[in-house]
């Protein structure tokens, strides 16, 4: 009778105190957020309800059949009558079976459909969120919402709700039939109801608390395992496997302890409900039986009444059971809706300028100051003023942590500045639509990560319309063609999760090929050749040289060759621009540049 599913679900992404204050009782209200998702499937729900009504009506009618068989068939010894009643019941059983098929199919697939829609809706929101959201929230928890929370909803919409409806309907129908059959006995039963319900309510609350706790535990087990898998090589290199196994055992054990308690309460709850129900039924049979003996009631009538009373009792037990499930569904809904209602901090302007691109646009950083949200008291960029003319190549140099990569992230508008602005082609980048702004740029990040797909997909990501020939041409230009050809299936080779099957330098060349294929107005290269050996670097450098000719290029570089070709070199330190000029100018006037030049550019080849 139980349809419980012990699915994990992360509890709170933001660990906001608000969450803990949400009162338990209010939470069923949260289910109304599901209505818009259900509304689409009115037809399906309507049919399911019809099927449900049919099955309930037939199930209830069996009570009458029971009475008829006992009172008319047995008592009067009429075999013919018994046969015809059985025939009718056989037909009804067949209809019941058919209606059950429909009901089950419709309701279960409804669960799947709604889950599909919710997943899609949540994902569409998540993909458009501002990147800092993912710095503040753990990706494992966001993923667990998309998978476990939606799966929980699926099983609840697809089974528990229908179970509750079925039980509820049976209860109402059974009660009505009881009243019709024998009002006096019904009163006896109704008086016994609180006896059954009160312990159920008390225990039910405890079960719900524990079930929430156990979901949190399961989420934590998942997060732990996920992290270890990501870090597997670190774990093994320090031979900490046994240590991690021990730790994990603890996690799992704690989870089990919580679940054990919950299951214990739940078992007692179920057993208690059944026991109390039967006591109530016992009283009823005693009262009813006395009436039969005294001749005030027929045996079949009592049988019919007991039949309905049992159905009602089972209905009560299962409805209370499902209430717990619904609470969990409410919790899952809340978490999903919370994720869906996060507003992206980086959005299109209300009235964006009507421009397609910034061809030959000037880029200006104007008195720009920026803090990463997670470091509010430390400026990653401070009072940056920089103008880049169309077609220029500007090299940014500086020690690690100077804020070079952050400059690119600002230009791509992954974050908005705290103060100042970036102006592209005469307009604040906030006035461009994100699409128009970013379609101007191709970015080769410092630590490229590939999609777990094949080479073709990864390069074509820069331009989905590109033909395979274009992709190969781009790969050749990025000096990647040669090694791609040697992969087991060439361009069709699957690269593993995050591209684990490639070396750092190979990943970098794939990402450069992607940028080449994109053919942007503005190229952002973040230490794009840092992971390459001297020989392939030279080759990629030539490709990049061709690439930078026709467009505005910002390059974070540590090789003299790149820097020497730049129209302008910007020296950064601790979030500030400390000097700008050409190589020879800077060698004259910037001590930091001198140091960098000696330590970095000179020693690393060229
Ligand atoms: N996502 C982030 N959240 C918080 N701080 C960050 C983030 N990314 C970079 N930082 C910090 O901002 C500063 C500048 O970083 P970055 O621009 O990556 O330096 P660079 O590229 O010059 O090595 C560093 O102090 C770094 O620790
Ligand atoms: Mg960097």
List keywords for this structure.
single chain; 606 residues; alpha/beta; ABC transporter transmembrane region fold; Rossmann fold; six-stranded mixed beta sheet; four-stranded antiparallel beta sheet; 20 helices; disordered N terminus; binds adenosine-5'-diphosphate; binds magnesium ion
Chart the SSEs and their pairings:
Elements: H1 17-21, H2 35-39, H3 42-76, H4 79-127, H5 132-136, H6 139-181, H7 183-230, H8 232-237, H9 241-293, H10 299-340, E1 363-371, E2 379-388, E3 393-397, H11 404-411, E4 419-424, E5 427-428, H12 434-438, E6 441-444, H13 455-460, H14 468-477, H15 481-486, H16 504-518, E7 522-526, H17 534-549, E8 552-556, H18 560-565, E9 568-573, E10 576-581, H19 583-589, H20 591-601
Helix pairs in contact: 3-4, 3-6, 3-10, 4-6, 4-10, 6-7, 6-10, 7-9, 7-10, 9-10, 14-16, 19-20
Bound molecules: adenosine-5'-diphosphate (ADP) and magnesium ion (MG).
Detailed description of the structure:
The chain is α/β, with parallel strands linked by helices and 606 residues long. Among the domains are: 24-340, ABC transporter transmembrane region fold, CATH 1.20.1560; 448-519, Rossmann fold (3-Layer(aba) Sandwich). 63% of the residues lie in helices and 10% in strands. The protein contains 20 helices and 10 strands. It has helices spanning 17-21, 35-39, 42-76, 79-127, 132-136, 139-181, 183-230, 232-237, 241-293, 299-340, 404-411, 434-438, 455-460, 468-477, 481-486, 504-518, 534-549, 560-565, 583-589, 591-601, and strands at residues 363-371, 379-388, 393-397, 419-424, 427-428, 441-444, 522-526, 552-556, 568-573, 576-581. The protein has a 6-stranded mixed beta sheet with strand order 6-7-8-3-9-10, sandwiched between helices. The chain has a 4-stranded antiparallel beta sheet with strand order 2-1-4-5, covered by helices on one side. A hairpin with a 7-residue loop joins β1 and β2. α3 packs antiparallel against α4 and α4 runs antiparallel to α6. The protein is elongated and about 120 Å long. The termini are far apart. Bound molecules: adenosine-5'-diphosphate (ADP) and magnesium ion. Adenosine-5'-diphosphate is lined by residues 135, 372, 374-375, 380, 398, 400-406. Adenosine-5'-diphosphate (ADP) binds at residues 135, 372, 374-375, 380, 398, 400-406.
């Amino acid at each position: 009778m139980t349809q419980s599913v012990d699915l994990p679900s992360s509890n709170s992404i933001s660990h906001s105190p608000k969450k803990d204050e949400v009162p338990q009782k209010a939470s069923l209200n949260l289910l109304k957020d599901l209505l818009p998702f259900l509304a689409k499937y009115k037809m399906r729900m309507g049919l399911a309800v019809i099927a449900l009504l049919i099955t309930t009506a037939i199930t209830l009618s069996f009570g009458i059949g029971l009475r008829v068989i006992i009172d008319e068939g047995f008592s009067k010894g009429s075999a013919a009558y018994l046969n015809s009643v059985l025939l009718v019941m056989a037909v009804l059983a067949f209809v019941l079976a058919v209606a059950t098929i429909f009901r089950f199919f419709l309701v279960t697939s409804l669960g799947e459909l709604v889950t599909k829609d919710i997943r899609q809706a949540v994902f569409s929101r998540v993909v458009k969120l501002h990147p800092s959201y993912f710095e503040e929230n753990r990706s494992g928890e966001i993923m667990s919402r998309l998978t476990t929370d939606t799966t929980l909803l699926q099983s609840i919409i697809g089974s528990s709700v229908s179970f509750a409806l079925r039980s509820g309907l049976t209860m109402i129908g059974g009660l009505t039939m009881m009243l019709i059959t024998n009002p006096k006995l019904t009163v006896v039963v109704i008086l016994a109801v609180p006896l059954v319900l009160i312990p159920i309510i008390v225990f039910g609350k405890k079960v719900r608390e524990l079930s929430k706790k156990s979901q949190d535990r399961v989420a934590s087990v998942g997060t732990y395992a996920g992290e270890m898998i990501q870090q597997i090589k670190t774990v093994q290199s320090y031979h900490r496997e046994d240590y991690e196994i021990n730790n994990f055992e603890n996690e799992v054990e704690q989870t089990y302890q919580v679940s054990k308690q919950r299951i214990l309460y739940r078992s007692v709850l179920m057993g208690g409900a059944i026991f109390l129900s039967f006591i109530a039924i016992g009283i009823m049979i005693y009262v009813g039986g006395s009436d039969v003996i005294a001749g005030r009631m027929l045996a079949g009538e009592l049988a019919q009444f007991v039949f309905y009373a049992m159905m009602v009792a089972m209905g009560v037990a299962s409805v209370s059971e499902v209430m717990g499930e619904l609470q969990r569904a409410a919790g899952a809904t809340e978490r999903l809706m919370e994720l869906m209602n996060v507003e992206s901090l980086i959005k299109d302007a209300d009235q964006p300028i009507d421009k397609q691109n910034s061809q030959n646009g000037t880029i200006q950083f104007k008195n720009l100051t920026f803090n990463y949200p997670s470091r509010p008291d430390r400026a990653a960029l401070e009072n940056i003023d920089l103008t880049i003319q169309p077609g220029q190549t500007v090299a940014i140099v500086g020690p690690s942590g100077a804020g070079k990569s952050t400059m690119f992230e600002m230009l791509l508008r992954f974050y908005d500045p705290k103060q100042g602005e970036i102006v592209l082609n005469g307009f604040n980048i906030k006035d461009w639509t994100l699409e128009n702004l970013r379609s101007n740029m191709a970015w080769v990040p410092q630590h490229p990560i590939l999609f777990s797909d094949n080479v073709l997909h990864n390069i074509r990501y820069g331009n989905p319309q590109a033909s395979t020939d274009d992709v190969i041409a781009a790969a050749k230009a990025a000096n990647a063609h040669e090694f791609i050809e040697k992969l087991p299936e060439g361009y069709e080779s699957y690269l593993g999760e995050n591209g684990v099957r490639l070396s750092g330098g190979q990943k970098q060349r794939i990402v450069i090929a992607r940028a080449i294929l994109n053919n942007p107005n503005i190229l952002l290269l973040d230490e794009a050749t840092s992971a390459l050996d001297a020989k392939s670097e030279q080759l990629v450098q030539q490709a990049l040289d061709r690439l930078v000719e026709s467009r505005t290029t910002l390059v974070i570089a540590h090789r003299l060759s790149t820097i020497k070709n730049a129209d302008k070199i910007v020296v950064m330190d601790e979030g500030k621009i400390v000097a700008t000029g050409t190589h020879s100018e800077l060698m004259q006037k910037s001590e930091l540049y001198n140091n960098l030049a000696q330590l970095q550019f000179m020693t690393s080849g060229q």
